[in-house]
Amino acid sequence: MESMKKLMGIIFTVCMLSAAAFAQQFAPGVIMTDANWSGEIWVKGDVVVEKGATLTIMPGTQVMFLPVSDENKSGADPARSEITVKGRLIAQGTRNNGRIIFTSGGTNPQMNDWSGIVLKNPRTPSVLNNCLIEYAYKGVNCYGSSPEISECEIRYNLYAGISCEVRANAVIRKNSITSNEFAGLVCELASNPIVEQNIITQNTNGVIIFDRSQPNLGTVNYTRGSSRGENLILNNFEANIYNHSANDILAQNNLWNTSNPADIATNIYDKRQNSAKGEILFLPVFEAGGSPQPA
What we know:
Blueprint: H1 2-23, E1 25-26, E2 30-31, E3 35-37, E4 40-43, E5 47-49, E6 54-57, E7 62-65, E8 82-85, E9 88-92, E10 100-104, E11 114-119, E12 127-129, E13 131-134, E14 136-143, E15 148-150, E16 153-155, E17 160-165, E18 171-173, E19 176-178, E20 183-188, E21 194-196, E22 199-201, E23 205-209, E24 232-234, E25 239-243, E26 249-250, H2 261-265, E27 268-269, E28 280-281
Parallel strand pairs: 1-4, 2-5, 3-6, 4-7, 5-8, 6-9, 7-10, 8-11, 9-12, 10-13, 11-14, 12-15, 13-16, 14-17, 15-18, 16-19, 17-20, 18-21, 19-22, 20-23, 22-24, 23-25, 25-27, 26-28
């Protein structure tokens, strides 16, 4: 009788381990046709969504990246995995338990455990909504593309929460962009994202603008295709906005934890410190009930 109990225990354990192994899903290296992800997906090497293919990630999915690992040894960092989207990514989570998570699979996760999500399709916009993106090098890299990123939490990334590069015109709306090492948002190489109603705080720099880029962070002359502002940009450690370009940057109708222009300016780097740089045009500031309405 005792031996039968032991045998049944062994069989039960083997079945449970087999079920767990079966349930663990690993992402393919290349996605050529439309695909859906759900449950828990493990990434151990670069994933490429090819042109013409759409990767749809279902609400509640957890995408786990093996830390400092890329079995394909390719992409931007041969030592770290990334998802590169040449087709389209649709990651629309729901609030609370339906949020989609992109994170490190390490037991002690660190910034730069994985490389990031790279969106490269200039014609068909990808969508990230209600996602948590953390512990990457660049959380989301909009490379020559114009995705819509909304209601996401983007944190603990080494270079940037969101990086807009090469004429990227992303729409970045209602996100929490916090605790990123270099910057919450980086704009470079002639990128012009629309940035509105975000919380950008506790990053080393809130927003950094390089070379020919000109993000729209808010305008009182709001029309469709521009930003209404209403961003909360405060308590970033070096600068709330750092303008390293020669362009003037619209950043009107935002909240800065103060309405005093002199206090706001102390946390902005622009032509006031370097005459070769453009000016951050942050006046007027947001006032409750005074938000511009769509045209």
